[in-house]
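Fold it.
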Amino acid sequence: MHPASVRYFSWLLHRSVILASIVIILTSVTTSVVAGLEDTTLSRDNLASRLLLMDDEELLSIISKKSFDYFWHEANPHNGLIPHSSAEDSPCSIAAVGLGLSAIPVGIRRGWIGREEGYDRIATTLSTLSSDRIQRTNGFFYQLLDINEGIRFQESKVSSMDTCILIAGALFAGEFFSQTAVQDLAYEIYSAVNWQWMMNHGETLARNWTPESGFEDARWDSFDESMLMYILAMGSPTYPVPASTWHRIRRPVRGNYIFVPQESLTSYILPHLWLDVKAKEDYYANYWNNTVSATRYNRIYSMLRSCEFKTHTRDLWGLSLCEGPKGYQVYGASADCYHGVFAPHAPIGCIPFSPYDSMQATREMLKRHGSRIWGKYGFTSGFTADGKWWSETYHGISAGLILLMIENYRTGLVWKYVTCNEHIQVGLNRAEFCRSELRQAVTPVYLGEVKDKHYSWGFPATD
């Protein structure tokens, strides 16, 4: 019999018992609230509780499927364009389209969609992107587009990084559907990108351009997610940038790894969605080991700052780009970017680099906040450690990082196909990647060069 029916009939026979029970329940709830949500229950969403009962493989499967559903169901089926987020009237994000192109082969291999319908969706998307309906400048795309018309959204900028993510996704899809029209379309879009123009007479790639103001002063001149972009730019079959650009990037070292000043995990993870550099190094570092170290730093930093929140635990970490109380922005393990806001995609996206700790964080998020941050497409964008704020929005970037890194961790699917792309191999060769046996992140020769230029932990200044 359903619990509600039991309570109904018990009311007729045991009214006094029921009233006493209500008092006890109300007292328990009040105590929980006063304690600051120290033991968040999942009574509002039994699904989150059931997820915690699954083993790791089952849990990863459902997280992956939910993330895939974002790309499959949120896309405009008529042109393949994908929104930046699930928010109403969200414009198309070119980066989300690139991640969506990568998501489809995963969906096919997992049996979530058929090969033919996956092929058709990719072909539709690439045909749209290569048509005159989509505005491009020297092959580069605007960051945001109208999801129905494909025209520039408001005052969106031509973005080198967002175009890079799109190209990476297209090339992976092309390799997955090798010797088909999809591969031809992917190559055509990649070949049209004039990386030399984006250099803007400088030594590194520019970030953005608009028809109103031209190039912005900001450049991709320091180590971050642009690692992927430089590999694509150096490997371009039509407009390659010189290999010297690889050596014009600043690579600051903290302790034993090259770090991103904001310490946002997205910057470390994103190149690894497509590049398999686990056993490779260049002059400067083994970038796989580097991300392992950055992940550890992010986790330890979160733990050391946890005293600010009574409800925080050692298993709750993951500081990265996500939606917070003040909007969609970069959060990180640094004094300027730490605001107690965590991104579910960050620890999950780090699973190839920290399997145990990533799974612990995933379960801790479900245990403490699952009833708030788990829903239609899996985990939402972000939440605060104190449990007082959480996002109700899903983002394409987050869903893509989760889906692709889980799949790479489990099968290496994306890495397997992207490794077959000759132009990416050209880019890696021009950066002089070679086989690595390093156990640390930074190479001894580069560590020697910067031995007097190390940076300390990024904690806020104290009196």
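Confidence is low (pLDDT under 50) at residues 1-44.
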